[in-house]
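R.M. (postdoc): so does anyone remember the format we settled on? I'll just put the structure tokens first.
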């Protein structure tokens, strides 16, 4: 709209030159004056108003006394003078406005014109009364427009007066500019009159008009507050820039979003407010690295640009911001199109501002940013043109900027980075020296001394000085580098990422100088910052992104601790602090609250409530609704719909009982699919009709709830019918409770008994109810917030809600720790807890670092450390290559360097009788997580120098993971007997697995022998997600995919893997702890692979994801497995579980026996191969005898479950894959 007005003003101004002698000139000038007045009301530029007044005076001077529009000319000028008085409070101006108003009324001949003239004069009189207090002005205003008719009606109760007051009130509301500050007052006055009218003669139309008036008034009041609120948001963001206090920035973002929700896009405040909000989202992204914040910055940046007039002075600044955001999205996601677009925008705005004197500050900032983008493109393209452009633009920005300019330090820093890149390319010393020069200058030009950016600048300069030392060998250069790193690390308000980076480099410098104590001090502080990288409010994919920057730091810190004389416990705690941070953040939220509940039930309830907001979609939806302006109405809708649904659920439960009592329908509803409906329709149509009617009601009730709060991005489930078992269970429970004395009206809409009453009298029933209700709500609103949908507003609402919830959680945790006996709540485990985790067998943590390698042995009464001097990190990396990892020589090397000394130190010196196996839990770190510790040894017939022949092996990702698992209650109130069995013999676009079907058929028979209900018809993600919460066993036989670049995207290949994948990321969002499954068996390839080196410390893979979701035990693989051998391993494992009972011990024992069987078979094959080799020099008769013996044990190599070459004809059996190695057990 503003652009249209601008065009009209330009056109009218240009038209004036040809109208000097035209009688229509007054009319043209009056129109131009009116448009200038309108633009003033939008943009508040007083120059527009001044010009409008001047034109109005000129119009009256030019117009003859008999001009047909003279009255309109007078009223328009009077109105402009009134605006001018409101801005300047000049008495002469308002007096002139009143005088012109009177003249207009005297000149008026038509009734319609008279109404407008009277309204204008009344407005000016009322304005003068407000500023001068003259009662005569107020009386005259009343007399003209009768604005006090409402008050007269109150005294005399003349309905005619009230109607006239309503009439004039409507005129006033209609004619008031929609963004006028007076509009709310006019709306409230008119609505009050209409309500009084309804008391005399009720009319529904009047009530509806009142509703609309109230909405309009509230909306404008919010708009009126937008300006001051925006100023407050700016002040808070400036305070954040100075102090680095994230709370200031969170508040600024919350205020900014509040402004955006109330201000229309065509209001002048919108462009400014959305731009400030985009900047604040970007600042928070730089602090926490949450992808949603970056997308929020881009979204509001684009909105701000769209609302900015094309000729606005702010246009280039907003284009530059979007260019910056795109550059950072390129850095995050690697899409070169984003960087190309950022450079294109940068070139455009630099060219447009180059020769404009007024834009020189902005021009240099644009050059600096453009140089930085060229740097990044050079690193992608290796084009020297990009590098030269980066340096050229950087130097232009620096040389044109005065000292102490707010941006000069950043300009120097970016130029220093460009020259460092050039040095790496050219190896020319002068490039490095120039980079150091500008790096030092950037620090000297940074103000104030506690500026958060200093950590980044100093870390960068330290790196340059360290490079210089490698050339100069000047100890001062290294000393200066150390000082830079140390200062950056110690800067409390610095960005955590740069502090951790500086700490990592600092410990390395000290280690090179063999200053081990200083190296440890730096490592200890840097490790303590790692959890801060992973802010609780971040989504899991954001946490993974930021944590990979600290890979290896925890291992180095632990090694340095041992090297400086710290004990095993101290080293262990550093490892726990620096590794598996993402996993442990999930476990902290889902921890068992038994101890807290015993000491402070109120705090336990509060913790559960806040925790549910972070993990449960429905709880988050309700929390957001309760914080909104419509909270009362919407929460009432939710409660009403919930009661309605529970009533339908109860009736469905009763109906199921009736159907199951009919012959032939005893199993109706006992499976997830609605089997038997067709038979029911044929034999008992009335039952089928009632059943379908209730289901339709349930579906519709869910739909109505969703439509009420659809703007919060709740998505309706596609297959609600598959969830009927939960519905029936809940319905039966409600009906059961209603048979108990005093609970006849439980869950009725008007009932008097509550869940609280049920908890007091029947706690077990209450617990069942809460669990079932929670499970059902999770099904009905599963994945309520779509984090990567097109609905960006819902994603931002979700993100901001998480920030607020995390602050509540942090404060609650602090309050709990202040209570006696709860000081260690959600803190690192102490010695007692760690040793208690080893009550079923020793735990072995193996730390691998370039500084030293050690094993920390944890037993019930002791924690001790044994050095592993022969374990060299580079050799371990070489052995972890796929062509080496499963070779007999690697197994032998592992035994001699790692596992052999550990097994001996634990006292397991001999092969064990099978009925009394000792059990060891391995927790490897770093590159050792890829190596098969459990299979290491000297494998030949008769050997006992193997792990497999001494102990049963299990794995864990961390000590805290084991403690967490042992604390969980694995005796759920409703023990499931279901086994979800999936065999993917055929997977779209993948090789055929001919033995997967055999594996499933074999296990189906065994599961039935174990009295398990087998579910084997479900092969899609949505089915698995719905069924897992109610399963005891989950067995998958098929292909697996491990994403080395993004472990959260690793997945099992189900039937719909191309469109909807069951990834590690989606598993982490599941919480099955209320009814934890016993065993997940992932008979697929590489389910224990955790990605590239930068992800190795987090140890995220499919096995750990199923553990975090709630599985007590998980069996998986370290790499590719053989299709046929998978059948044997699975059959033998489940045979042991079946024969010994479904216990913790049976799972690891079963896998142990299965692997030993395959190993023994391989040893036998190898021995027979050696016999065949010797038979080549024996007499023919002896050869025949040996061949006969060999045929009995030979096996043909089967097809792979993933890509493994068939090696059945391989002459050297030692080079054939050892298919017994990759299987591993994670669990208790």
């Amino acid at each position: 709209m503003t652009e249209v007005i601008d065009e009209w003003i330009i056109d009218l101004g240009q038209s004036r030159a040809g109208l000097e002698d035209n009688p229509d000139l007054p009319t043209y000038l009056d129109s131009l004056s009116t448009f200038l007045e309108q633009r003033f009301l939008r943009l508040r530029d007083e120059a527009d108003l001044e010009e409008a007044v001047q034109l109005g005076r000129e119009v009256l001077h030019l117009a003859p006394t008999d001009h047909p529009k003279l009255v309109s000319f007078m009223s328009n000028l009077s109105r402009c003078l009134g605006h001018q008085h409101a801005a300047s409070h000049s008495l002469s101006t308002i007096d002139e406005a009143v005088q012109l108003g009177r003249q207009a009324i005297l000149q008026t001949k038509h009734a319609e014109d008279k109404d407008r003239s009277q309204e204008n004069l009344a407005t000016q009189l009322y304005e003068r009364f407000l500023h001068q207090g003259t009662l005569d002005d107020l009386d005259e205003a009343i007399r003209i427009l009768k604005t006090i008719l409402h008050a007269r009606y109150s005294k005399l109760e003349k309905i005619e007066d009230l109607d006239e007051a309503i009439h004039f009130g409507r005129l006033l509301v209609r004619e008031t500019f929609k963004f006028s500050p007076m509009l709310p007052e006019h709306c409230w006055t008119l609505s009050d009159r209409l309500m009084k009218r309804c008391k005399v003669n009720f009319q529904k139309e009047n009530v509806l008009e009142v509703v609309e008036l109230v909405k309009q008034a509230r909306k404008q009041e919010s708009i009126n507050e937008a300006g001051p609120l925006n100023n407050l948001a700016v002040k808070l963001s400036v305070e954040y820039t100075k102090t680095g206090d994230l709370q200031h920035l969170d508040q600024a973002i919350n205020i900014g979003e509040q402004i955006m929700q109330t201000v229309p896009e065509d209001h002048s405040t919108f462009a400014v407010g959305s731009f400030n909000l985009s900047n604040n989202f970007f600042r928070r992204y730089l602090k926490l690295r949450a992808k949603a914040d970056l997308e929020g910055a881009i979204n509001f940046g684009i909105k701000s640009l769209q609302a900015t007039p094309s000729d606005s002075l702010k246009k280039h600044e907003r284009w530059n911001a979007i260019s910056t955001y795109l550059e950072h999205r390129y850095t995050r996601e690697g899409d070169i199109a984003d960087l190309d677009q950022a450079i294109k925008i940068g070139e455009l705005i630099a060219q447009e501002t180059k020769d404009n004197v007024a834009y020189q500050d902005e021009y240099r900032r644009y050059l600096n940013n453009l140089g930085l983008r060229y740097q990044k493109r050079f690193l992608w393209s290796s084009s020297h043109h990009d590098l030269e452009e980066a340096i050229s633009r950087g130097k232009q920005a620096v040389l044109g900027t005065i000292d102490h300019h707010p941006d000069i330090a950043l300009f120097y820093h970016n130029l220093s980075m460009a020259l460092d890149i050039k040095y790496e390319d050219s190896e020319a010393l002068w490039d490095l020296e120039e980079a150091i020069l500008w790096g030092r200058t950037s620090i000297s030009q940074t103000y104030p001394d506690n500026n958060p950016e200093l950590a980044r600048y100093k870390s960068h300069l330290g790196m340059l000085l360290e490079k210089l030392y490698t050339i100069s060998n000047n100890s001062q250069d290294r000393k200066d580098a150390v000082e830079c790193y140390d200062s950056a690390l110690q800067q409390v308000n610095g960005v955590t990422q740069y502090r951790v980076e500086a700490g990592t480099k600092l410990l390395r410098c000290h280690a090179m100088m063999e200053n081990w104590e200083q190296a440890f001090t730096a490592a200890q502080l840097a490790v303590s910052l790692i959890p801060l990288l992973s802010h609780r409010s971040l989504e899991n994919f954001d946490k993974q992104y930021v944590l990979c920057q600290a890979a290896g730091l925890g291992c180095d810190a632990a090694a340095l601790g041992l090297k400086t004389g710290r004990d095993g416990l101290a080293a262990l705690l550093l490892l726990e602090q620096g590794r598996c941070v993402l996993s442990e953040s999930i476990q902290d939220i889902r921890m068992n609250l038994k101890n807290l509940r015993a000491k402070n039930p109120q705090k336990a309830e509060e913790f559960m409530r806040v925790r549910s907001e972070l993990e449960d979609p429905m709880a988050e939806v309700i929390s957001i609704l309760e914080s909104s302006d419509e909270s009362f109405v919407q929460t009432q809708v939710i409660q009403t719909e919930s009661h309605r649904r529970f009533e339908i659920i109860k009736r469905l439960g009763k109906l199921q009982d009736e159907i199951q009592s009919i012959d032939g329908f005893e199993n109706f509803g006992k499976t997830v699919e609605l089997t038997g409906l067709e038979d029911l329709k044929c034999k008992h149509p009335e039952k089928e009709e009632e059943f379908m009617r209730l289901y339709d009601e349930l579906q519709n009730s869910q739909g109505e709830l969703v439509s009420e709060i659809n703007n919060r991005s709740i998505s309706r489930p596609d297959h609600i019918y598959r969830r009927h078992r939960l519905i029936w269970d809940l319905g039966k429970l409600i009906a059961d409770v209603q048979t108990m004395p005093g609970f006849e009206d439980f869950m009725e809409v008007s009932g008097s008994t509550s869940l609280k009453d049920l908890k007091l009298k029947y706690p077990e029933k209450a617990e069942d109810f809460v669990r079932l209700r929670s499970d059902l709500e999770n099904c009905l609103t599963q994945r309520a917030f779509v984090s990567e949908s097109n609905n960006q507003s819902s994603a931002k609402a979700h993100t901001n809600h998480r920030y607020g919830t995390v602050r509540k959680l942090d404060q609650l945790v602090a309050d709990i720790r202040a209570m006696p006996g709860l000081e260690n709540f959600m803190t690192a485990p102490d010695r007692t807890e760690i040793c208690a985790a080893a009550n079923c067998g020793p735990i072995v943590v193996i730390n691998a670092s370039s500084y030293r390698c050690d094993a920390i042995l944890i037993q019930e009464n002791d924690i001790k450390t044994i050095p592993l001097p022969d374990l060299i990190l580079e050799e371990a990396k070489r052995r972890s290559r796929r062509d080496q990892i499963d070779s007999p020589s690697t197994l032998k090397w592992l035994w001699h360097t790692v596992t052999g000394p550990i097994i001996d130190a634990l006292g397991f010196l001999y092969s064990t009788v099978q009925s009394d196996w000792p059990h060891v839990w391995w927790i490897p770190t770093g590159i050792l997580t890829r190596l098969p510790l459990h299979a290491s040894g000297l494998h030949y017939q008769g050997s006992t120098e193997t792990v497999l022949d001494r102990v049963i092996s299990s794995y864990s990702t961390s000590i805290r993971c084991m403690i967490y698992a042992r604390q969980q209650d694995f005796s759920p109130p409703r023990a499931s007997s279901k086994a979800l069995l999936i065999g993917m013999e055929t997977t779209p676009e993948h090789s055929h697995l001919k033995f997967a079907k055999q594996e499933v058929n074999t296990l189906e028979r065994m599961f039935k022998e174990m009295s398990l209900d087998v579910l084997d018809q479900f092969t899609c993600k949505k089915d698995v997600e719905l069924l897992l919460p109610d399963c005891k066993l989950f067995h998958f036989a098929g292909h697996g995919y491990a994403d080395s670049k993004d472990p959260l995207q690793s997945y099992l290949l189900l039937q719909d893997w191309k469109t909807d994948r069951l990834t590690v990321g989606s598993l982490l969002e599941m919480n099955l702890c209320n009814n934890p499954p016993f065993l997940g068996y992932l008979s697929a390839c590489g389910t224990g692979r955790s990605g590239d080196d930068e992800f190795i410390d987090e140890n995220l893979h499919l096995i750990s994801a199923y553990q975090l979701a709630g599985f007590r035990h998980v069996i998986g693989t370290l790499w590719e497995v053989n299709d046929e051998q998978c059948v044997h391993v699975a059959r033998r494992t489940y045979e042991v579980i079946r024969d010994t009972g479904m216990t913790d011990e049976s799972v690891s024992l079963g896998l142990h026996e299965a692997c030993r069987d395959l190993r023994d078979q391989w040893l036998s094959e190898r021995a027979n191969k050696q016999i065949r080799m010797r038979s080549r020099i024996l007499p023919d008769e002896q050869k025949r005898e040996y061949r006969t013996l060999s045929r009995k044990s030979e096996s043909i190599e089967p097809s792979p479950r993933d890509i493994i070459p068939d090696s059945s004809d391989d002459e050297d059996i030692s080079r054939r894959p050892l298919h017994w190695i990759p299987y591993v057990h994670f669990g208790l």
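R.M.: ...and that's the designed sequence above, right after the tokens. Also worth knowing: The mean pLDDT is 77. The first helix runs from residue 2 to 15.
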